[in-house]
Structures are given as structure tokens and as C-alpha cells.
Amino acid sequence: MVYSASPLEATATDIASQPVWVVGLHRNDPATIRALYAKHFPAIKHYVLQNSGTGNDAQDMFQEAMTVLWMSVKEGRFVPDAEPGGFLYRVAKNKWLDVVRSAAHKHMKVVHDDRALDHRIDAPDDIEERIVRLRGVYDTLDDKCRMVLDQFYFERKDLATIAAGMGVEEESIRTIKYRCMMKLRGFRKAISGEDMEEA
Amino acid sequence: MSQGVLDRSTFEAIETYVLDRMSALDRAAFEQRMAGDAALCAEVELEKENIRAVELGGVTRMLKEIAAEGTVSDTNMAQGGWKQYLKYAAIVAIVLSGSLWLLRPSANERLFAEHFIADPGLPVAMSSTDDPIFADAMVSYKEGHYAQARAKWSPLLQKEPMNDTLRYYIASAWLAEGDAIAAIPLLEGMVDDPSSALRAKARWFLLLAYVRAGESAKAKAVELDTDPVYGERVRAIKAQLER
Predict the structure, then answer these.
(1) B 79-118 near A (Cβ less than 8 A)
(2) CATH number at residue B161
(3) To probe the interface with A, which of B52, B106, B168, B186 has the most A CB atoms within 10 Å?
(4) How many structural domains is chain B composed of?
(5) Distances (CA, A) of A28 to A31, B11, B98
(6) B64 touches chain A (CB under 8 A)
(7) How far is A34 from chain B (nearest CA, A)?
(8) Which residues contact B222 (CB under 8 A, 6 or more apart)?
(9) Searching chain A, which residue's CA lies closest to the CA of residue B152?
(10) DSSP string, A164-183
(11) Mind giving me the DSSP string for A93-113?
């Protein structure tokens, strides 16, 4: 068998030479995510507003584009430029054009549609499919599991800090984390079992 | 294993591997085990996917929170007349005053700023020919051009990832720019090396990096309390973190 597994995290050496924002996204750093939001949202809002959308539409498109950027960086799927603005703009714009062209929005008028120029779209479709699939997995968790797992795996807090914040023993958090991850595992096993039966 | 229950110790071993928290020795042993165990490989992939799903949930939540904090409604201002503008003026005033409050450095940031001094760097002889790239980067570092220094040192680190001098000075450059998150993995990889002459210095910077990153529990766990150079400051910082 060919061994192909690799750690989820980039190693220190991998990321030492990367732009600061790439390092920040790898580490789910809130300051990095906020800074990217503040810097690049206005251009996308301008585009969506100019093309019959609302501020809320712009927020939705930008958040989707940010998620694609985050996932692409995490998965090492593209070599990022020094600035992610162009990537975010293209992904958000194409997503908005999909909305505008959908049946529910046929009345909308697109001021600027140079999508043909953007067909060298940076985000491969499978990244977006992967996001949809992983969201489906996350949706199976209850609130308690989300609270613990989010703090441990996303915010990177240690067990002692999570336990102190929730007013319980560290060992309880460790047990909850294990049980919640086993729930996800069970769900995934059930899904893969169904897939095999269908096949 | 893949069909039945996954015991906690195996789950946690996989987790440690997936989160890249294994020592080099343990990692090599674990990968060797994986090479001959298809079921273990499948579990690693599954756990990696599940952790990614949780992270995705986290980033989605955070993006919504950011939007909720800063959203200004896009309703047509003209419909509401001048009263609408008063409403927005009030929101802006509240946001501005809130921002000033929020922009205050946190207690941890203040603690970091109080104690962190970038390493002064190594002496560089004008005629240095042993390693001119390293020496050139050190000059940039000493002039305070930290990004430039890092850019010059990074290719050297890629060739010698375990070089403690490179790791230490690149980490020092990151910290000097206030980026503790980037410095932490570099320092974590060298603080347990008993052969490194920079071990105590690296522990001191790692403690400060944890403080800056808000990882108080990890900062308190750094063992440097009895160090003749840093011990007193370490104890003072830990006492402050207890408050």
C-alpha cells in the first residue's frame, strides 16, 4: 500500500516563508480574518451593490469567498500571491453572477459582467463541493459538541483553558471531545456504508 | 479498527499526529506504523476530515460574527429622510467609542510589551565570508528590517530546518513585529533540545509569545522559573497571569 496521509497542519518550516496572512489563516487567527474582512470587503460590496444586490447579499458573497480562500490555503490548493484581494474579488463576483442568473433574480440587471475573462477561476469546483460536504458533517453536531470542539480545534485553546471557561474539570472536556469526535466518526461511517450499499 | 470502536488512546495519537504536535521521533514511528496498517491510514484520513469540518464551522461562525459587528444596513437612505442619518450618526458614534475601547491593548499584550526586547543579534564582521547570506540577513535584522531579514533567512531554514540559530532569530523577528502566532511553532521546535545553546532564550521568547497570543495556560507551563537569567521575570509574569 502506498502511504499518502499527511498531517492537517503545515509545519513551521512550510509556513515560515509564507505571507503573514497565509500563516494567519493556517492558524485560524482571528486578527488575520478580521484584517482581510476589513481590507477586501469594500470592493466586493461595491460590485454587488452596483449589480442590484444589497449589503446583506454582499456580506454573503464575501463570506463565501473568504471560506473558499481559507479552505484553499488550508489544503495547500493554490500558491497564494502576496495579496489575496484579486482571488476574493473573482470568487465573490462569480458567486454573485450565479445568483443574478438564477431563476429568482432574472429581473436583475448586471452592470459589469466580464465573467468570460475570469474563467481562469482560482477556486476549483471540488473545493466548493468539499465545503458543502464538510458543512453537512458539522451540522450533525449538537451545541455542546460544537462549543467544545470549536474551542479546541478552531480556536486552538488547550483543554485546561476550555475547562476553566466552562467551569468543569479538564478530564470532562477531554471526554466530551472524544465522544463528540466519535459521533462524527459514526456519522461518517454510516454515510460511507450507505454509499457502499448504493454502489 | 475501522469497523468497530476507536479507543481513546488511538484517537488521541491520531489527533496528535494530525495536529502536528508529535515529536520527530514519535512521528517517524507513527508513520512507519501507518505504512503497514491500511485501517490506521483510513482512520487518520477520517479524523483529518472531521477536524477540518469543525474548523470550517468555526471560520463560518467567525465570519458571521464579524459581519454582525460591523454591518450597516443597506436600506435606501432616502426613504427614511434625515432621521435615518441621525440613526447612522448615532451608530457611528457608538462604534467609534466602542472601537477606541476595544483597541486598547489587552492585559496580555501589555505584559508582552513590558517584557519583550528583541534579541540584539550576533556580531557581524565586515569581512565575514563564512556565510555571507546569514551575515547579510543579520545586518538587516540589526537595522530593524525584520521582514527583510526573515526573507533572507527563510531559504537557509528550508535547507536546515532544525538549525536553532535560524529558528531563534526568525522567531525573534516575528515577535519584534508583534506576530506571536508565527513565532510559536519555530520556538516550540527547539525548546526541548538540551544541546542547543539558545534553549533558555528560546523558552523565554516562547513564554512571551504565548502571553502575546493569549495562551496563558501554555505560558504558565513553560519551565524557566529557576533560570538564573530569566527566573525572576518569569515568576513575575506567571504571578500576573494568575490574577
Answers:
(1) none
(2) 1.25.40.10
(3) B52
(4) 3
(5) 9, 23, 24
(6) yes
(7) 7
(8) B191, B203, B206, B207, B210, B234
(9) A17
(10) HHHTS-HHHHHHHHHHHHHH
(11) HHHHHHHHHSGGGTT---S--
Query: CA nearest A12 in B: which residue?
Result: B185
Residue B67, chain A, CB below 8 Å: the answer is: yes
Least CB-CB distance to A16: which of B34, B52, B170? B170
Residue pLDDT, tens place only, B18-55: 998 889 999 999 999 999 999 999 999 999 999 999 99
- DSSP state, A154? I
What are the backbone dihedrals phi and psi of residue B179, each rounded to the nearest 5 degrees, phi first? -100, 85
Q: Which cell is A151 given?
A: 474551542
Task: List the domains of chain A with CATH numbers.
Answer: 12-122 (1.10.1740), 140-198 (1.10.10.10)
Q: Structural domain of residue B55, as residue ranges?
A: 1-71
* Beta-carbon pairs below 8 A across chains A and B: 166
Residue ranges for chain A with pLDDT beneath 70:
1-17, 78-82, 103-125, 192-199
Q: Which of B53, B71, B89 is the last residue of a domain?
A: B71
pLDDT in tens, A80-136: 566 889 999 999 999 999 888 875 665 555 555 554 444 445 556 688 899 999 999
Test the A interface: residue of B45, B66, B76, B211 with most A CBs within 10 Å: B66
* CB within 8 Å: B57 and A141: yes
Mean pLDDT for chain B? 82
> In angstroms, what separates the C-alpha of B65 from chain A's closest C-alpha?
10
Last residue of a domain, one of B61, B88, B104: B104
Does one domain contain both B66 and B96? Answer: no
Locus of grid cell 482560482: A122
**CB distance A154–B58 less than 8 Å?**
yes
Q: What is the pLDDT of residues B170-222, one digit of tens each?
A: 999 989 888 888 889 889 888 888 888 889 999 999 999 999 988 889 999 99
ipTM here:
0.86
Query: What is the number of other CB atoms lying within 10 angstroms of the CB of residue A46?
Result: 11
